[in-house]
């Protein structure tokens, strides 16, 4: 089997999986999430006025287009996606994914405690190091100066009250 | 009339006024270029400075900030795929691929030319057709708005990327996301699950930043490190041929921007996408859109800047603000003891003319400051990606937080960043999602308001405006689908020939 055939087969499989999962998600959303997530008033005069009307309509439409996509993926000849990027994952991508997830969680959870500035400095330096920067003057210079300038801009020019954390009263 | 214009000109021609426009445009370009800080925020920030200024000077400062902000958003959209303002989200579709090819300078220059031309035409329409167009906009009721939005939604076909069905699913998911929050008619909760942060719906700016800027950063760390994915920005200019080719898209985009701008609530983002869709529809090479077509940049920038002047039409002619920015400008008028509307044309016509003259000058100032900004901002593209992307992430977090000063919005940005990354990996276009999300509330609101007025479905066919929009919606759908079918057929033919 040629490389081209393998690529086509994989491409087709990917589209089938996508369409099947979308269809399944639409069914689950319609059956469970909409009834649980939308409060239906007792007296709705007209169906389009109901809060559930549009969510159901859109969910059905998603399901229908997922079916169309599934049919396309199953029966039509697969056209290689022009926009498809060649997979070129980093050799240690699972580790990097875990590190990136951790850093994004730090950005989300720590500003209230550490302050937005310190959190930003920490994450910026680690991300630059993850990207391959090894020069300490760049890591510390850029990693401290840029968050500081951006922080001061937001706090003093844009008048946004950022979480101060450990630096309360400093800036 | 000429006497009034002469008096207006005298009133305008002061150092303070020219300085106010210059400072305003420069401030707007800078703030607009920062992801998370919108033109609305920039105008709101500048508002307190107008208290101590003359009415004309104060209004011109705000108008300058607004116009600069609308253009400024395109700079970072092109350079780092992080639209500074929502209206620039469409510019990145072709602007960023051009930057990746090392043609950031060309993309930004085209964005500037399109912005200035559209701005100028929009200003002219403001001056000559203010009262007429505002009158037309007044004829729009909920059914007419509903059909206008249906027509705008057809643009999803043009921005669907390589798969129409995936693009449509993306647009529908955007519409579905827009239903989160309190129901507009009954006030009941929809998908909030008792989380008070979601009562007002998902915030727009964090969603935008997450969907477009964050996936680039995530993708960078998941792939083999390439220090310079974006080639150094050249100082390339737009060639005469490229400008000539893009001129119809610019003029069409300006026209669309002017029409959309006069309709309160429609907005610059919708105008940009609509203009882009039209440019792609009428182009001889629609398949190149989304891959670095300079006409795409021209069309989207013409669309969003065409709105800038026109949105002042209902404000000045009728006293109705067309969007949030003009609502802030209306506040500035009130603070100065002026009430925009028909009476202002009677009582303060010289002030109106002075403002008009200043607004015309703002296009020139925008050109000058834009050229200067391009020269300096272009250097951003020369920064190595491993240094630039952590800074982009920094702006994403700060910008998202700044919207309502709450960490919840940072969480929203991160969530949509992950969604955007997954969409990128399965080659599902994010632009239709954004379009659906923007137009969703208007779509539902006008649908339900129409039913509240009359339970008869005939209300949707009540006026010639409805019929015009129905016709162009059907036409747009037909042309879009036919083009997609033809494109698929030609790809299949090429595939068969390649295999044979």
From TrEMBL, chain A:
Transmembrane segments: 16-38, 53-72, 93-110, 116-132, 139-158
Superkingdom of origin: Bacteria
Keywords in alphabetical order: Membrane, Plasmid, Transmembrane, Transmembrane helix
Protein name, as recorded: Tripartite tricarboxylate transporter TctB family protein
Residue span(s) of domain DUF1468: 23-163
Keyword Transmembrane helix: yes
Organism: Ponticoccus alexandrii
Taxonomy of the source species: Bacteria, Pseudomonadati, Pseudomonadota, Alphaproteobacteria, Rhodobacterales
Keyword field contains Signal: no
Automatic annotation (TrEMBL), chain B:
Domain DUF112: 18-434
InterPro entries attached to this UniProt entry: DUF112_TM
UniProt signal peptide: none
Domain of life: Bacteria
Transmembrane segments: 12-34, 111-139, 145-161, 168-186, 198-218, 249-276, 312-335, 347-367, 387-403, 410-439, 459-481
Keywords: Membrane, Plasmid, Transmembrane, Transmembrane helix
PANTHER family named in the record: TRICARBOXYLIC TRANSPORT PROTEIN
Name of the protein this chain belongs to: C4-dicarboxylate ABC transporter permease
């Amino acid at each position: 089997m040629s490389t081209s055939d393998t690529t086509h087969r994989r491409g087709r499989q990917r589209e089938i999986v996508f369409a099947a999962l979308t269809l399944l998600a639409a069914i689950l959303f319609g059956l469970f999430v909409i009834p649980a997530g939308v409060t239906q008033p007792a007296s709705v005069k007209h169906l389009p006025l109901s809060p559930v009307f549009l969510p159901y309509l859109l969910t059905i439409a998603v399901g229908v287009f997922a079916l169309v996509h599934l049919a396309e993926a199953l029966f039509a000849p697969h056209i290689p996606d022009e926009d498809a990027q060649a997979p070129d994952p980093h050799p240690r991508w699972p580790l990097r994914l875990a590190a990136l997830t951790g850093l994004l969680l730090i950005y989300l959870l720590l500003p209230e405690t550490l302050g937005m500035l310190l959190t930003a400095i920490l994450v910026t330096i680690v991300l630059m190091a993850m990207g391959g920067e090894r020069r300490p003057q760049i890591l510390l210079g850029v990693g401290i100066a840029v968050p500081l300038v951006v922080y001061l801009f937001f706090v003093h020019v844009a008048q946004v009250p950022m979480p101060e954390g450990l630096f309360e009263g400093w800036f | 009339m000429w006497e009034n214009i002469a008096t207006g000109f005298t009133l305008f021609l002061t150092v303070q006024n020219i300085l106010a426009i210059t400072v305003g445009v420069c401030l707007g370009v800078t703030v607009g270029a920062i992801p998370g800080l919108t033109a609305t925020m920039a105008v709101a920030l500048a508002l307190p400075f107008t208290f101590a200024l003359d009415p004309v000077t104060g209004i011109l400062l705000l108008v300058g900030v607004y116009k600069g902000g609308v253009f400024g958003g395109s700079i970072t959209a092109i350079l780092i795929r992080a639209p500074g303002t929502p209206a620039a989200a469409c510019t990145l579709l072709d602007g960023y691929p051009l930057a990746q090819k090392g043609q950031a300078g060309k993309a930004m220059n085209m964005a500037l030319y399109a912005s200035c031309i559209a701005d100028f035409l929009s200003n002219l329409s403001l001056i000559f057709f203010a009262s007429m167009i505002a009158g037309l906009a007044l004829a729009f009721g909920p059914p007419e708005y509903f059909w206008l939005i249906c027509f705008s939604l057809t643009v999803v076909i043009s921005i669907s990327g390589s798969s129409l069905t995936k693009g449509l699913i993306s647009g529908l998911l955007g519409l579905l996301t827009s239903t989160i929050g309190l129901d507009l008619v009954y006030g009941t909760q929809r998908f909030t699950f008792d989380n008070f942060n979601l009562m007002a719906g998902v915030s727009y700016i964090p969603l935008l930043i997450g969907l477009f800027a964050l996936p680039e950063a995530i993708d960078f760390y998941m792939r083999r490190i390439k220090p310079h994915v974006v080639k150094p920005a050249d100082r390339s200019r737009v060639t005469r041929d490229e400008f000539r080719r893009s001129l119809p898209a610019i003029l069409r985009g300006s026209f669309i921007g002017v029409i959309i701008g006069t309709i309160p609530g429609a907005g610059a983002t919708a105008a940009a996408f609509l203009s882009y869709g039209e440019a792609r529809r009428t182009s001889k090479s629609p398949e190149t859109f989304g891959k670095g077509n300079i006409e795409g940049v021209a069309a989207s920038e013409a669309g969003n800047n065409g709105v800038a002047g026109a949105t002042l039409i209902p404000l000045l002619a009728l006293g109705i603000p067309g969007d949030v920015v003009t609502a802030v400008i209306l506040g500035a008028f009130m603070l100065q003891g002026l009430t925009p509307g028909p009476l202002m044309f009677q009582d303060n016509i010289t002030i109106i003319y002075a403002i008009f003259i200043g607004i015309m000058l703002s296009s020139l100032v925008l050109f000058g400051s834009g050229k200067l900004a391009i020269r300096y901002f272009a250097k951003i593209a020369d920064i190595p990606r491993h240094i630039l992307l952590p800074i982009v992430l920094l702006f994403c977090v700060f910008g998202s937080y700044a919207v309502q000063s709450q960490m919840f919005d940072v969480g929203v940005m991160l969530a949509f960043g992950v969604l955007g990354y997954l969409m990128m990996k399965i080659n599902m276009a994010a632009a239709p999602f954004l379009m659906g999300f923007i137009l969703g509330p208007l779509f539902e609101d006008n649908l339900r308001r129409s039913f509240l007025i009359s339970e008869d479905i005939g209300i949707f066919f009540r006026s010639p405006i409805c019929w015009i929009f129905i016709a162009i919606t059907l036409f747009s759908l037909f042309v879009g689908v036919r083009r997609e079918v033809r494109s698929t057929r030609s790809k299949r033919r090429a595939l068969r020939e390649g295999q044979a």
